Predict the structure.
Amino acid sequence: MINKEINRSQIYVDVAKLHIDCIKKGFLPSLGVKFLALLYRCIDESNFSTLIVKYKDCQLIGFVIGTLDHSKLYKKMFFYPLDLFIALIPIVFNLKKIIKIIEIRKHMSGSKRSKYSKAELLTICVHPDYRQQGIAVDLYEKLSNYFRSVFVYEFVIIVGQSLKANLFYKKRGVELVDEIQVHPNINSNLYIQKL
Ligand SMILES: CC(C)(COP(=O)(O)OP(=O)(O)OC[C@H]1O[C@@H](n2cnc3c(N)ncnc32)[C@H](O)[C@@H]1OP(=O)(O)O)[C@@H](O)C(=O)NCCC(=O)NCCS
């Protein structure tokens, strides 16, 4: 769901930058703007995921990303080998980051994650200047409508236990069903939102 007046490539860069600004300690943001912008392009172009953005006066103020199948997410990036190669240059020499990528892959195909719906809210972010104004609720509702439109009536949310966003999700009526470790020593809550 994209604002047609803004160039698509610019939207992917804007989303990558807002993600990095909003979740500074997250692993995905540490992969850099180029990697994230390519990932969001793939998400937007695929028929199993969605990128919903909200702009005000040409400034990105919030976005949400959801997928119908979390396990297919990164495969689509191989359709753009040159862009992927360029995005990976700063990462390939960083062993810690490579290990974390492998951990994410293992988590995605792991038996614990496989017990639950493949549909997932991957990230929601609102620009700090626009918080507490109901923007995230609006994005969340739009994502829920996307899932309903493809007859998906529950989705997973995995969020680090230390993040304040847990309170946001609890207010939306999610059910805490599990605790999961995508990376060692970092506990995340696994919620299910029923629609
Ligand atoms: C979580 C986040 C998306 C909420 O955005 P927002 O636009 O401020 O949320 P809303 O204004 O729509 O708030 C909806 C409700 O959640 C509550 N809420 C929102 N952020 C909250 C927070 N940090 N702590 C406690 N409650 C919060 C609001 O009080 C509001 O409650 P109400 O409906 O009773 O009034 C935003 O704080 C953010 O971008 N955080 C950083 C990124 C992040 O951690 N994302 C989640 C991980 S994927």
Q: What stands out?
A: The helical segments are 8-22, 33-45, 81-92, 95-109, 111-114, 135-149, 165-171. The pocket of coenzyme A is lined by residues 22-23, 123-126, 131-137, 159, 163-165, 167-168, 171 (CB under 6 Å). The two ends are 20 Å apart (CA to CA).
